[in-house]
Each structure stands twice: as C-alpha cells, then as structure tokens.
Amino acid sequence: MRRWLACILVFWCWAATAAWAADTVVLTWAANTEADLAGYRVERAASCNSTSWSTIGTVTATTMTDASPLSPTSAYRLRAFDTTNNISAPSACAQVT
What is the pLDDT of residue 5? Predict the structure, then answer.
C-alpha cells in the first residue's frame, strides 16, 4: 500500500492511498470541502512523466477503483471541478507498480 500527499489547489490538499491487488487499483482521498465542488476527474498515464494522460473516470465520491490498470505501472492524478465546470490544475502524481 502506498500513501502520498498532493495539493490540487492552494486551498485544498488531499491525502490519498492506492493499493494494487488482483489487477485492480483502489484510489482514495480526503474530500474537498469547498461549497461549489461538483466532483473529481481521475486521470491515468503510464508514468508520472507522461505527457499523455487519459481521464478514466469522473466521480463525486472520494474513492475509485481502476479495474484495468496499465502494466507494469500506472500513474494517477486528480483534478477537482466545480459547479461552473472550472477545473483545477492536476494534483501531484502517484505511481503504482
């Protein structure tokens, strides 16, 4: 199990956990407490240095399971978005091997 701390906006930081088991990755993070939060965009790439990120899900919860992680590594980051569809800069990357 890996843990990391990442900041999406100056005012919002989240602690996340990623666990890789049986070809799935479970991502969890602390909730954003801003009143106009609409959800989170979860993005994945082959490595943290990638320039090609794909959105693998949009959720309102603070957890997501990736049932199709990339092999041999998957890198993940979040973007928060609000009710007027303003999207944050990406969080720090977390890589699972």
Answer: 34
Residue 29 phi, psi dihedral angles, 5° rounding? -155, 160
The radius of gyration of the chain from alpha carbons, rounded to an integer in Å, stands at 13
Task: Give Cα separations from 5 to 13, 31, 67, 83 (angstroms).
Answer: 7, 13, 23, 25
DSSP 90: P
What is the rounded CA–CA span in Å between residue 73 and residue 29? Answer: 20
Taking a C-beta distance cutoff of 8 angstroms, is the pair 81, 87 a contact? yes
pLDDT tier, 72 (very low <50, low <70, confident <90, very high otherwise):
confident
What does the block give as tokens for 72? Answer: 């041999």
